[in-house]
Design brief:
Blueprint (H helix, E strand, L loop, with lengths): L4 H4 L4 H14 L1 H42 L3 H45 L6 H43 L4 H31 L5 H10 L4 H28 L6 H36 L6 H14 L16
Helix pairs in contact: 2-9, 3-4, 3-8, 3-9, 4-5, 4-6, 4-9, 4-10, 5-6, 6-7, 6-9, 8-9
């Protein structure tokens, strides 16, 4: 990018999107390789999970219908019990496998963007060699975020159980509760995504990265929320298109049409994932600049080189950035 240090902090919603687009445009080949290697398989797993989940849930609903019309209730109940177990195990297996693949994608894209910012030579081989080392840090950060999400959900349920029965607001209370819950859940999600970038580009990871992320987004909360919200909408829209036209489908749509729409959804989802990861990395630098943290490429370049065996201990405040020339 061709921006001075003072300009970065003033990037808003559209400025961040433009910056992310410029980064992709400047390194199309390396991002194409990363997408094909890491992100496309992730997108395929995500869409396949939707299709398989629909098949399993449809079979469970069908068996439940049969249970009401058959006299062999014990047999049908046993079948339903095994199907529910299989469905639950599938969901758990999918979640674990998805996380295993999503974290390398995150580390690979964040590392690549940082290398571009520091004008550091980057190849797919370097990215793949760095991914296993960064992945361990991201796992710790994810575990802490999962703990925080779980604690938030437990507290939210307790609040609903305590205040729900004594509230005379009825629908109004439930609406306010739902809105408040979604805002809090989305806030933690934003913190986690930015903490993932911190885990790659700074010494902090885990709970420290979450705290660092919380401090960084202060003053840029609106921009962060807007960007993640729009990217989330794209995810939802692609998922709905896939579910309506591919998973469910109609008799009017042939198999060729459904395959074509499925491939289109796979491409769009992969692009959205890539752009989302690049955007959250750009947000990290925007937030650092907004808080007037020094921006100089040398310490960050040293930190990135450390993943390749050239490690130099750094503190979070020393991780800096400077503009680069494409």
């Amino acid at each position: 990018m061709n921006r001075e240090e003072e300009e970065i902090q003033f990037l808003g919603f559209f400025g961040t999107i433009q910056e992310s687009y410029d980064i992709v445009s400047s390194r199309k080949i390396i991002f194409s390789k990363i997408t094909l290697t890491l992100i496309v398989p992730l997108s395929f797993i995500y869409l396949s999970h939707i299709k398989i989940s629909e098949l399993l849930s449809s079979k469970i609903v069908l068996d439940e219908t049969r249970e009401r019309t058959r006299s062999h209730e014990n047999i049908v109940s046993n079948i339903l019990s095994s199907e529910y177990t299989a469905f639950l195990l599938f969901k758990i297996g999918y979640f674990i496998f998805f996380i295993i693949l999503s974290l390398p994608s995150t580390s690979g894209v964040v590392y690549t963007v940082a290398c571009i910012y520091t004008a550091k030579r980057i190849t797919l081989k370097k990215v793949m060699s760095v991914v296993p080392k960064v992945w361990k840090r991201l796992v710790v950060t994810f575990v802490w975020s999962f703990i925080i999400f779980s604690a938030y959900n437990v507290v939210s349920i307790l609040v609903l159980l305590i205040l729900g029965p004594v509230s005379f607001s009825g629908p109004l209370f439930l609406t306010l509760y739902a809105v408040s819950y979604l805002i809090g859940f989305f806030y933690i999600t934003v913190i986690w995504h930015l903490a993932s970038v911190v885990s790659v580009l700074e010494e902090s990871y885990g709970l420290n990265a979450m705290a660092r992320s919380h401090a960084l987004i202060k003053g840029k909360m609106g921009v962060c929320f807007a960007l993640f919200f729009v990217i989330g909408l794209f995810f939802i829209e692609i998922q709905l298109i896939f579910k309506v036209f591919v998973v469910v489908g109609t008799n009017e749509e042939g198999i060729v049409t459904r395959i074509g729409i499925g491939i289109l959804c796979l491409v769009l989802l992969s692009i959205t994932m890539l752009f989302g990861l690049i955007t959250q990395t750009v947000i990290y630098f925007v937030c650092k600049s907004y808080h007037h943290e020094n921006i100089d490429k040398s310490p960050l370049a040293d930190h990135l080189g450390g993943y390749l065996g050239e490690y130099v201990p750094l503190k979070s405040k020393d991780v800096q950035l400077e503009h680069f020339q494409v």
